[in-house]
Every structure is written in C-alpha cells, then in structure tokens.
Amino acid sequence: MKLIRLTGILGMLVLAACDADIEPIDQQLRTPDTWNPAEWAAYAEGLRAYKAGDHYVTYACFDNAPERIESEKNCLRSLPDSLDAVILRNPLSDFDREDIPELHKRSTKVLATAECSDPATALQRLDATLQEIASSDLDGVVIRYSGAVTAEASAIEPTVAQRLGTLTGKMLVFEGNASFIAAENRELYDLYLLDATSASDIFTVENAMDYLTGYYGIEAGRVLPLVSLTGTLADERGASQPAPTKVSETVQSHRLAGMAFEGVSSDYYSLTGNYSRLRAAIDLLNPAHQ
To answer: Which pLDDT band holds residue 203 (cuts at 50, 70, 90)?
Structure first.
C-alpha cells in the first residue's frame, strides 16, 4: 500500500512539473586547459612542436553543421589532438565557432571549403568562404573543382587565383581536377588533395598520383591522398585491405605529404568506430609521436 501511495505521489509531482516553465540550465564546457593549466601548457607546447616538425600531415574532412547535434561525434573539439588540420565541408554553425578556439589551442588548423565546380556560382561561393575565413579566424581554404574543365571554368580561374593571392599566412589546398588550375598558378597551392575514395585498387591510386606529379609537375611532397576511413582497396595481389593501411604504404614509399580522411564523423564513438580508426591511421604514418 505504501508503494502504491508513493507511486501516486511521484506521478502527481511529475504532472505538476509538466505545468511549470522549464528553466534553462547554464551549462559550461570545462576544457582540458582549465583542469591543470601548467600541465596543459606543457602538453600544448609538445603538440605545437610535433606539428611544426618533420612528420606526415593528417587532415580530416568533417561534415560539420548538422541539423542537430547528436553527440560529441558532431563536435570539432572531439577530434584527436594529433590531427594537423580539419577541412569543413559546410558553412560554419554556431557550435563550430565555439569549437574553433579549442582546436587552435592544440595547433590544429581549420580550413573552409569553397565549392567552385559550377563556374556560374564559383566566385560568389569563394567570396562567401573568404569572408567566413576572415570573420571566424580560419586557417585556410580548400578550392574544390570536380568534373570537366569548361571554357567558363578556365575564364574564372585567374580571378580565383587573384583572390587567393590576397590571403596572407593561410593554407591553400586544391581538391579535384587539377586541369582547372593554369600552369602559372600551380605553385599557389600548398597541398593537392588526391581523391582515392572511389578507387577499387592501389594501382588506380598510384596511377592518379603519377599523373598528378608527372603531367602537372606537382611535387610528391604536396600530394595528400584522400581515403575513406572505412574504405577498402585491393592490394598488389588482389587481396582486400583497409584503404588507410594500404595508402599509408604509398605515402611513405613515395614521400607524399601525408593522408586525408573522409567520413570521419559517422560511427564515431563505438569501440571500433571512426575515432579509433582515425587514431590508428595517424599512428600508421607517425608511429613515434608522443
């Protein structure tokens, strides 16, 4: 009887609470540097020295600004500290802006993407991206051009190069069909993303790399293969291998710049999910970093 009465009282309290206004909770994110500032300062300096030193760089392409934040998998602050840079695939959200200072504390660069594949809208998209870089203290831009290079595309390329030339101290990356870039502007870009996400075997990846370095004259040290964290590639014997593992061998044997990873934010926090895969991929290229 007491249990029944207690259950009834609790139910009445719950119903009464439903009629009351919900008061906002003032939640404050406690970042690692607030726990022990001295230890964090030493750790941050170690990260800065590591990323400034000689190593294979690692970039993550991040599907930022979802309709709603489901968990830390949607938050930039939860990326591994040893990541060199994150490429934002969408315009910034307020949540992204809150996280950018946290990434900068770890010497992680944040790059915006300017989708320039449609010549009719390319310059407007580029201008919007450059404004975002200036207003949100981003570290650079990825110029993305896919598909065939039309006469309209060739006509706007000098303007794209001119506007990029006004940036000072920013990382410039190109992704897509390198025919878009005029020969005299190829040195403008620090890195070239080589999309290997749709390749079925390692020969396809290496042929594309040879074409980029041989035909276009891009130095191997500026080539950054882009792979899917969960993708697979057939090796020299036709056996299926994890794409990051197999491409890391090509990166090291050809002394490429490093590797970039697509699809980071999906399946992020399961024990065998993409956070663990990303950490493992970084360790493949830089096994001695602390």
So the answer is: very high
Work out the average pLDDT over 207-235: 96
CB 119 within 8 A of CB 150: yes
Report the CATH number that the domain containing residue 189 is assigned in CATH: 3.20.20.80
Confidence category of residue 247, pLDDT binned at 50, 70, 90: very high
Q: In this predicted model, what pLDDT tens digit does every residue of 261-287 receive, in sequence order? A: 998 877 655 656 777 888 889 999 998
Residue 18, in any domain of the structure: no
Bridge partner list, 260: 59, 226
pTM for the model? 0.85
| Residue 203 forms part of a structural domain | yes
Q: Is the per-residue pLDDT at 15 higher than 50?
A: no
Exposed (0-12), middle (13-18) or buried (19+): which is 111, by Cβ within 10 Å? Answer: buried
Q: How far apart are CA 186 and CA 189, in angstroms?
A: 6
Which of 213, 225, 212, 216 is closest to 182 using CA atoms?
A: 216
pLDDT tens for 212-224 read 999 999 999 999 9
E strand intervals along 53-108:
57-62, 85-88
Number of domains into which the chain is organized: 1
Asked whether residue 119 is domain-assigned, the answer is yes
Residues in a beta bridge with 223: 192
Task: Give the list of residues 6+ apart from residue 203 with CB closer than 8 angstroms, or none.
Answer: 236
DSSP of 112-167: EEEE-SSTTTHHHHHHHHHHHHHHHT--EEEEEE-S---HHHHHHHHHHHHHHTT-
Query: Kind and range of the H or E element at 176?
Result: strand 171-176
